[in-house]
Specification:
Strands 1-5-4-3-2 form a five-stranded antiparallel beta sheet. It is about 50% helix and about 20% strand. It is built from five helices and five strands; from the N terminus they run H-E-H-E-E-E-E-H-H-H.
Length: about 170
């Protein structure tokens, strides 16, 4: 039963991943403008202060994916499951433009399924879930060998399922 929730999550998000076009209307993009202390972005850019200001003042979240600095501008990108925000800063004035995209609940679930922009801890959760599902599958396979009346039909269905998956792959997958 421990693997039931995990199996249900990955099965349901497998469907939503294959049909992402069903959920494109959920995505919302907002563009805003702001200004921060220009001293933070002149000379040596105080990256931590800039990022924390954007988090507290503008409510941006997610991990910092990229922080680029050139002579006149700086760009900061935040990413998380179903979320991204890009900030373009003018280094001379401290003014900035933000484009924030929230893709909705289904996109969050899809990104969790893929481990996209979720961090190292979630990657470990995915690995643990995969190990759990593998152990459950192997225990079922081992159990079929002890059920003498069901062994033949069970192994036949196993071979048929694997064969069908291979045929589909060989014929229809480019």
């Amino acid at each position: 039963m421990a693997s039931f929730a995990v199996l249900l999550f990955f099965a349901a998000t497998g469907i939503t991943l294959n049909h992402q076009d069903w959920f494109t209307k959920m995505q919302k993009t907002v563009q805003t403008k702001g200004a921060m202390n220009a001293e933070w972005v002149k000379g040596d850019v105080d990256k931590l202060r800039v990022v924390e200001y954007l988090r507290s003042h503008d409510g941006l979240h997610g991990a910092v994916d990229d922080f680029r600095i050139d002579d006149s501008q700086a760009q900061v990108s935040f990413k998380g499951p179903g979320y991204e925000a890009d900030v373009n800063l003018d280094r001379a004035t401290g003014k900035y433009d933000t484009t924030e995209t929230r893709a909705g609940f289904v996109a969050i679930l899809n990104d969790l399924h893929k481990g996209r922009d979720t961090g190292k801890t979630w990657a470990k959760v995915i690995d643990l879930c995969a190990i759990l599902m593998t152990l459950v599958s192997l225990s079922g396979l081992i159990l079929i060998f002890y059920l003498h009346k069901r062994r033949g039909p069970g192994l036949l269905l196993l071979a048929a399922g694997a064969g069908l998956a291979y045929i589909i792959y060989a014929v229809w997958v480019p």
